[in-house]
Each structure stands twice: as structure tokens, then as C-alpha cells.
Design brief:
This protein has 11 helices and 5 strands, in the order H-H-H-H-H-H-H-H-E-H-E-E-H-E-E-H. With 341 residues, it is mainly α. The strands form 2 sheets. The chain has a 3-stranded parallel sheet with strand order 1-3-4, with helices on one face. Strands 2-5 form a two-stranded antiparallel ribbon. Helix 10 links the parallel strand 3 and strand 4.
Amino acid sequence: MFCYQCKDAAGGCGCVVKGECGKTSPCANLQDFLVRITLGISVYAAHANELGAFDGDVNDFIQNALIATMTGVNHDVQSIQSLIHQATGVRGLAKTLYEIGCAQTRTEPYALTGPWDVTPVDDSDLLLAQAELYSIPLRRIREGEDVVNQQELILYGLKGIAKVLQSQTKNPREYRLETRFNELLDFLANSPDDVNQLHKAAMETGRLYMEVLEAQHDETHPLPKRYENIIDKENPCRSVTIEINGEEELSEALRFIKAYRSHWLRDCEQKSITEWSVDRIEPFGLNIQFNWTNQESVSFYLAVRSIGIDNIHMHPHPAFLKKEASPTNYTRETASAGNWE
């Protein structure tokens, strides 16, 4: 097995015998395989969504299947095997949804296929052997370690988003956001290896997390007292360090960061500051420290990076994450758009 999706990865590199969380090797490999089958569902769902065809049950299964592979959620081998076989049926439903969308819009359906197009065997022992083919170590051999690390970074961010989507209490459903969620999974389903495209997808994952939180929570109530008076309206570029402890603080911290960033952008406008170089200390004057636990922490990390904040430190440092150089010509305009190009 190999798993490095949480802070307890053995030796800071990854669990290879048994997960620190208690996950066994068969469970780890089956979870990786479940993700692969679920990505296949998202391919049909994304194409159906593009044609205006939606199915809440299909989206729920995609999101709950990803949640089942999050840290500490489901370590039962038989349960994961059952989900894998259910996923095959749901993929058929998603394919039918896509075909309905094609018929309604008089669009010729594509014969969709790719690395995600795999059918699990019925025999339990053979299924374990089949699942191992989709494990992270073998993917690293086929696709390269750096590419797989970036793919997993996006996947973990999407798992965190799935958790938030499934906690929603508002009606009607936010199909606009779920469509973008499916599109990002569709991107991952085809084993992308272009580093620039992977980076763009990671930043889009971060932006999506922010929008999902905004749709789920009331953003008009005052910020917690711990953030009061931190925003210096006269000099928003001063250096500020904030510490985040626990998943429950992520949403409020992100609200504060966006508010601080807005003050920084207005200050730049007044001072006609349009760009900086890599030798300048953190552009927004923020130094963010947080102890991460599971995959929603990765969603938060990507959200902060997507709005141009580089100086963010996750403790302990994730094994799947490498430090990246800051862009050399990052302008106020691109900061406002949240682009990293």
C-alpha cells in the first residue's frame, strides 16, 4: 500500500505497511480503485452537465464515494468493495444521462473512453489484485512522481469540497458549482501530465472551494474577535501572521484573508503599485501557519494560493506537496483575477 493524504503519513513520506489511521493495505488499494471508478462517473456527468442534463443522485454518489476515501471515514474492506460495484452501476446511469442530454440537444454522442474506463471483476480476491494496479506507487512508475503528486493535490482538494457540498442545507442545489466540480474530476480522469494544466486545475480547485463556502455559509456576519483590528486600513501591506488550529477555523480564516486581500488591492490602486518581483516579501503581508489534518485543509491551502498568497505553511509539510517558486510578474490585475500564469 501507499498513502500520504493526511498529516500522519509515516516518516512524513507515506504509509507503506499499514496506515497510521488504521487503514490496511487492501483497504488503501481498494480506495484508490474506487476513486478511479468514480472519476469515470464524473466524465459522463460532466459531459451531461455541459448539455444541461443533471442528476442529483449521481452527483451525491460521486461526492460520497470520494468522502468514503477520506482520512478515517471508512476502513471497511467489504464496504469499499460494495461501493466499487455500485459505482459501476452509477457510471451506467451517468452514461444514460449523457445520452439523454445529447438527444435533447440533438448532439451526436461521443464514444467516451480513457484510463477511467475499467470494469471491476466480481471475485473479491481478484478485485484486490486489480485494485493494486491503480495504486499510487504503480501510477508513479507509469506517469512520474511529480505528475502523480500534482494529481493527488487536486484530488485531495476536491475531496474537501465534496465534504462541504454534502453538508449543504440550502435548496435548490448549486448545480453550477457541482458542474465545475465534475469538470475538475473529468480532467483528472484522463491522467493529465501537463504541469501547467495541472497547476491551473489546482488553482481552479481552490477558487471552487471558496465559492462553495460562500454558497453554504452566511458571509455577512462579523469576523471573530481574534481577527478584529488586524486589518490596518492605513497600511494593509504590513506583515501579519495568523495561525489556524483545526478544520472548524478554515472558513472564518478564509473570510478574513479575502477581506485583508481586498484592502491590499485598494492600497495598490491608490499607490499605483502594479507588480512586484520574487525578492519582495509576501505580497499581501500575510504569513499563514496552520496545522493541517485532512483533505479539507488541502482545499483551504489551494484557495489561499489561488488568490495570490504564497507564504502559507502547512505543518507538518505534506509529502505530496513541493514548494513552488513565486511568479516573477504577478500583477495587481492577475491577483484580482486569481490567475497564476
